[in-house]
């Protein structure tokens, strides 16, 4: 088949052809790089540049809300790390939170654990407010570590996370998470797909742009936290990690994603709708703190990817019901997109275990559409809903209004 056949005979098909090439090549190269970085490059080259004996005093801040799956085991794991010089501060919104009895039970068994109660936030995301409240009772650490309560860190997690901070060139380190869709429901597989896609983006962004953080697992030296004015920023915005990424970028520093700190969990979101809403929130953070990238970078990709997804059924229908040929109706670019993106999916098992993989591949068109749906929802709102609380953001990404669900 001649390339000119795939290329098409009109301008729209021509544009889609080149766009499909760009998207497919970009996704495959980014995924291949992530595999290379995770399985070879970080261990052999990046990690060797850091001081393995670096042993700073750390305070791990773990915000908690309610009693999610395996909460006690997760929280206990933070106190079983192969690291001696650290404390753990659990923090909740109030002393009436359902997580408090679980936390108090753990604290009774460990001298290096304590709890903080934040109260209600009036100016920023409740998580940010909780983190700032916990910092007030830390024991003058060298490094602040922030982690989510729904992960269970491996014993070497803290050591690996702080080691790159032995270099002054690195401002913040980050882990990530790998979701196991054990039951293989459509909702679980969709969340797993979006999560892997984000992981590839984060590794690439950290490696080539020096930015990209996941709030569920990140560390920063206390002196940098203070010098960058992170507390002042967090007290006004709707997210911790993306705002910190922006701060790091403004200060011309860099972040490192540590592959050994990718934690594995088996609690993906159960429905496609919940994944769409979750991913919408992630994109809203991008809109709030990296607005040019959100509009000039992601918007064209969302539009073109949508067109390419629908181009295949359109070309098939047009070739059957009209005088158009499959190739003339955009079938060529669509095939390039589908084949290339499915080839990318087949690289994912090299990053981590994939459950129900044949079903995962078959669901690709629908799963990829969640990207577009989530993105276009962010164009119609400046409100983020997180844990039932609605935060309205101004143009600068700061919280201008907070609406909490009524208890009555």
Task: Walk me through the structure.
- The protein is of the alpha/beta class.
- It has 2 domains: 137 residues, no CATH class; 219 residues, Spore Coat Polysaccharide Biosynthesis Protein SpsA, Chain A, CATH 3.90.550.
- It contains 15 helices and 10 strands.
- The model has no long low-confidence stretch (mean pLDDT 93).
CATH domain fold name of the largest domain: Spore Coat Polysaccharide Biosynthesis Protein SpsA, Chain A
Biggest beta sheet summary: 7 strands, mixed
Radius of gyration: 23 Å
> In which range does the helix fraction lie?
40-55%
What oligomeric state do these chains adopt? single chain
Class from secondary-structure proportions: alpha/beta
CATH superfamily of the largest domain: Spore Coat Polysaccharide Biosynthesis Protein SpsA, Chain A
Tally of individual helices: 15
Number of domains: 2
Strand line-up in the sheet with most strands: 3-2-1-4-6-5-7
The proportion of strand residues reads 15-25%
CATH second-level architecture of the largest domain: Alpha-Beta Complex
Unreliable runs: none
Class of the largest domain in CATH? Alpha Beta
Order of helices and strands: HHEHEHEHEHEHEHHHEHHHHHEEE
The N- to C-terminal Cα distance equals 67 Å
E-strand count = 10
| Average pLDDT reading | 93
The shape is globular
